[in-house]
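Worked Example 4.2. Read the sequence first, then its structure tokens.
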Amino acid sequence: MPGYTTPTTKARICRYKAEGLHETEIAEKFGLHRTTVLRIVKRYTKTEDYYNIKPKPGRSRKFTPLDVHLAVHALARTEAHDVADLQRKYFPEINAQTIRTRLKTCGLNAYVRRTKPLLTEAH
């Protein structure tokens, strides 16, 4: 079970440890490493608040998921035609490249339409 350990799993690990099971047995039961079990037991036996997740370090995003949602809808309703237009109308404090990057995560890739050659009857 690599990756994220659910709060329920954390609670069960702490309960098994309180019942006297060894860390190795608990680790094998859940498919985790022994040190992961030890870290969970150390962190949660005192507080028993398994749903408490510490805030992530670093700077918060300027262009929030709600802003991305608003930008996608503005483009869909043709209230804005491109990223530069979005920036001017809705997000003047955010760099256009930041908007482009966040829209790319939604599957909206910015591109310049290629010009087609003019075909006349002579062609």
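Now turn to a second chain, presented in exactly the same format:
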Amino acid sequence: MSYKMVRGLPKLAAFHRQLISSPTSRSIQTMAFTELVTPAIKQDEASKNFFMTTLAPMLGSIISSAPGLKHNVSGRVIFEDNSDVGSELKPAVGIEWEKEDNLYALLAGEDFKAFGGQAKSYFTRPPQPELYKTDISPVAAFSSAATEVFRIKIEDETKIEKAQQAWESLIATIRKTTPEIEALSGPSLNLKEPLFVGIIGWKGVDARNTALDLPEAAKSKNDLESLDGVTSFIAQFAH
């Protein structure tokens, strides 16, 4: 992925202007640069072992020494689109950067290119770093016992407000009974097909299930998931 490929796209520029100008959006002063990566590892034992013993430590070293890094966590996806995938190796990485350009500098660096060359034969598809401009820092959500991520495809500008309203309705409903959740959201910055992300930090999977089993919260979640192009996962990050 080159720097020029992900910058200056008219569709993205219009998307960001619309979202930030929305009356329900938060002050841009509080926004953070939040990255998510969920690489698809081949599930044969040799590939999984090589990822855990070689690739994961190599990537961790590259990220931890990257300029502009504010926070990073790694872990595993345990649920994907409401299905239990805990028996599979599905890595997840969460990062907060000081600024947008920090990610592009990392991707253009020689260390990351060397990692990519060594890792590509162990992935079922090329990993896609997803950078979002979120309303608050992701640190609290990433530090929670379970981190749930909803990604909503924004095919045109008319869907921006619907996505944001559905997300804010879900969070407001959950907070009536579970005020201790951590929540953040925002638009993608580097994806050719823009996404809106919503992230919830839960005290655990059981707490999450209890909250979302309540009728009002279940309806709000269904309303969100009824939007076109919604995917989700729950990760547990090492702390």
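Notes for the reader: Residues 143 and 239 are 6 Å apart (CA to CA). DSSP finds eight helices and nine strands in the chain.
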